[in-house]
Amino acid sequence: MVVTERTRNQISKSDYISRDLSWLNFNYRVLDQVKDTNKSLIERLKFLAITSSNLDEFFTIRVGSLYNYIDYKKQRIDYSGLREMPFRKILLAKAEQFTAEQHKLFVKELIPHFKGNGFRISTYKKLSNEYKEVVDKYFQTTIYPMLTPMVYDSYHTFPMLNTNRLVFGVVTEGNEYNVENKKLSFIQVPSNLPRFYEIEIGDEIHFVYIEDIIKHNIEHLFRNVKPVSISLFRITRNGDFTLDESDDIEANFLDELKKKLKTRRSGRVVRLEVMGRLDNWVLKVLKTRWEIDHDNIYSVPKKSMLDFTGLWEIIKHPEFKDMLSEMPVEVPPVAHPEIKDDDIFEVLQEKDVLMHHPYNNMEPVIDLLEKAAEDSDVLAIKITIYRLAKDSRVTSALLKAAENGKHISVLFEVKARFDEENNLREAQRLQKAGCFVIYGISSFKTHTKLMLIVRKEGDKVTRYVHLSSGNYNESTSKLYTDLGLLTTDEVYAHDVSEFFNVITGHSMPSVYRNLITAPKDMRQQLIDMIRTETENANNGIDSGIVIKINSLQDKEVIDELYAASQAGVPIKLIVRGMCCLRPGRKGLSENIQVISIVGHYLEHSRIYYFHNAGDYKLYTGSADMMVRSFERRLESLFLLTDDLLKKQVKNILQYNLKDNVNAYVMQEDGTYVKKQANGDPLFNIHKEFYNVTKENLEELDLTFDHIEKASNNGQHVEESVEETES
């Protein structure tokens, strides 16, 4: 694909970075983990599989969204300044470059190390005759009965091929028993088949591609006809949809959601991945049928593999369990060890507890919920749910609480992308058990993470509150960094109660004391705090902003950060994923630095720090700085008021800025370079946070004066880093 110089110039002139191109740069940072020879081979394979699943979702949603504009002839101008078709050209070209890098790493840097780690990925041809007989028997007994050839000709309609599944396109010719000559058939590999057939040969495990076994036995599916070409491919369909919602949530909304979920199976094809070369006739048929061109087609080298998500079968193999993680197995508590032994209700009556996952495990939160379900003094539980773990203890506790006669209110966000069907199923289980279940709030997606437990204690009622940046998901809490506050403070309790009344009823509180909420006024309140820093800088008063988020995309906020930078406010942004702000541009953003932390854990916590002339403000919660967060989601950020907890969160920001193992520095052109240690000791936050003690936090100064110093040596940081291949 050829991208013109004019297009490149247009992109470089824009004051904003394209959301989608920025996301591709993020996936390059994940891919960079695959190159890290300090990681075990299995860890490197894990990150390769993650980049592949990331890219699948990117094509399903972001490229799918772009095609919603193209197919329906709607206009759109990207942040780069490009219209739909020129942007499509460069986006697909960049994605093609990325996939080429994936396959290069797999073939040249990973495969050569398989043998030394006790396994191989084998093709059918490389097996001895003895083992060929073994896999042929497996084909006959297990695979063959599951396969269904689907012919496409003048008598048979084109079959519905599923997204992200391996498919064979087989061209056959008839013989004297079948006078019709050339025909095309499709064979879809069932999703419940393992990707590999496993054989132990000596001290090694050989993983044989399931598609290779099928290909070498495919003649069994075509009696009295001759396969003349066999092509393996995979398609990705547009899965981006919007709901036509009405006030009748129960009747119309759920039916509409179910219908839309089915459209993901038949959405327009946005990507065709081909193993090696595709038969020319098959290629012509597919391009015509799906209205795609060469830009949508991605060729996979024969020595590589189609769909790296299949590697999870090897990554999760029991034989390689010890190679998967180099991090501590136990997750010790930080700053509040007393919570391990004492009754959680009693602890929270005395103090607030801020939990930093996964360095603190999620057990106290689950423990609080499970005890509340059984406690005869608990009157009610209210909770918002966005994503749940498989076999969720949260669901089990809520079901138990309902059985015990407690009032349970659950806002189940059934529109959580790719978890819609699971959430809908779990929500209906709770509803059948007698819980009051709200399936969503009109056109808003409920992304806030809140829990409220009402407990009768003597002659008074105490409200136990949990506010968090992360989901009520025991599985991801071990992999994602998140912050959660457990408290009985009446101000938080009042704010959260009011917010639940907004969600479940028809209430519009005029003011919260410790909460900022969206879509009410979150964007404006954050802008107001940025403007305060700008005004202070203009008046010669100390100022500073440090923000840690997943994504930065909202133009109104970006423009305010640009204005603050021009006023001299030192700004440090820690943005894991996409960042549409362009840092370090002369006259625009010279005082803004952006880093991204990508490593063993997925950085998911959000933290907002404003110097505020020394009376600094710290917020954390569920919201990123995105249009969808401010306008299309129910979100919340909560103010931290306890000095020790503020120190804990300030320390998190300091550690992030200090990291020189997982950190990447964003350049003015939107690319990223790996931050170098420059002779300093290596500082890996994903290990260092395990060593934080309460005493460490108590020694911290409550100011954040080091960001001014960091801002002054920003040029030194940029000049000292070494550019990665991405």
Can you describe this structure?
The protein is built from 23 helices and 28 strands. By secondary structure, it is α/β, with parallel strands linked by helices. Strands 14, 18, 19, 20, 21, 23, 24, 25, 26, 27 and 28 form an 11-stranded mixed sheet that branches. The protein is globular, with a radius of gyration of 27 Å. Helix 3 (41-71) runs antiparallel to helix 4 and helix 16 (522-538) packs parallel to helix 17 (555-566).
Summarize the structure.
This protein has 726 residues and is an alpha/beta fold.
Blueprint (SSEs and pairs):
Blueprint lengths: L4 H9 L5 H14 L8 H31 L12 H27 L8 E4 L6 H15 L5 E4 L13 E9 L7 E7 L7 E6 L2 E6 H6 L9 E13 L11 H15 L5 E7 L4 H11 L6 E4 L11 H4 L5 H4 L19 H7 L2 E5 L5 H12 L3 E8 L7 H11 L3 E6 L7 H13 L3 E3 L6 E2 L2 E9 L2 E9 L11 E8 L2 H15 L10 E4 L3 H17 L6 E5 L5 H12 L4 E5 L16 E6 L4 E2 L2 E5 L6 E5 L5 H5 L1 E7 L3 H16 L4 E4 L5 E3 L10 H4 L5 H5 L7 H7 L1 H7 L1 E2 L3
Parallel strand pairs: 1-6, 8-9, 11-12, 12-13, 14-25, 17-22, 19-20, 20-21
Antiparallel strand pairs: 2-4, 3-4, 3-7, 5-6, 7-8, 10-17, 11-15, 15-16, 16-17, 18-25, 19-23, 21-26, 23-24, 24-25, 26-27, 27-28
Briefly note the CATH topology name of the largest domain: Endonuclease, Chain A
Described by the principal axes of the CA atoms, the overall outline is: globular
Q: Structural class, judged by helices and strands?
A: alpha/beta
Mean pLDDT figure: 88
Our count of helices gives 23
Radius of gyration: 27 Å
CATH architecture title of the largest domain:
2-Layer Sandwich
Number of strands: 28
- Sketch the major β-sheet: 11 strands, mixed
> How many independent structural domains?
4
The H-level CATH homologous superfamily of the largest domain, spelled out, is Endonuclease Chain A
